[in-house]
Amino acid sequence: MGRLAILLSGLLFGTGVTVSGMVNPMKVLNFLDIFGQWDATLIFVMGAGLIVTSLGYQIIFRRSAPLFATSFRLPTSQDIDTKLLGGAALFGLGWGISGFCPGPAIASLVFGRMESITFVLAMSAGMILTKQIQNRAQTSKA
């Protein structure tokens, strides 16, 4: 049942970013182009996402546990370190240059556009490279 919920959540997310136009990188790039062809659509998409998320949190945290787990597993770390800042900077640069956020980029793969495929391949390569670097750093510390 949990896997079905994951599948339905992914389909709902993919549908939402497709209907909102966020699978089109020009929507994001035009949002960032405040002195050119500015498009405010992203503000409304983010606002709607925040409203839905806060309502969801209000509902789900009334329960003692999630639907498909024995307890809530929420992050506890509040550290702002170089990994967090570096990751945020890379995310922002990638988003600003390409117009793709990881989720909408994956959802846009169904359209078979080369820029989507290239972005997802580059993102995957970056994730693999990061994991290898982290593994080597842990091995050298041991």
Topology summary:
Elements: H1 2-19, H2 25-32, H3 41-60, H4 82-98, H5 102-107, H6 114-141
Class derived from helix and strand content: mainly alpha
| Global Rg | 18 Å
Percent of residues in beta strands: under 5%
Annotation, overall tally of beta strands: 0
Number of helices, counting only DSSP H or I runs of 4 residues or more: 6
Average per-residue pLDDT, rounded, comes to 91
Could you write a compact summary of the structure shown?
The chain has 142 residues and is mostly helical.
Would you give an account of this structure?
It is a single chain. This protein is mainly alpha-helical and 142 residues long. The protein has one domain (2-141). Helix content is 68%, strand content 0%. The protein has 6 helices and no strands. The chain has helices at residues 2-19, 25-32, 41-60, 82-98, 102-107, 114-141. α2 (25-32) packs across α4. It starts with a helix and ends with a helix. The mean pLDDT is 91.
What labels would you give this structure?
single chain; 142 residues; mainly alpha; 6 helices; 68% helix
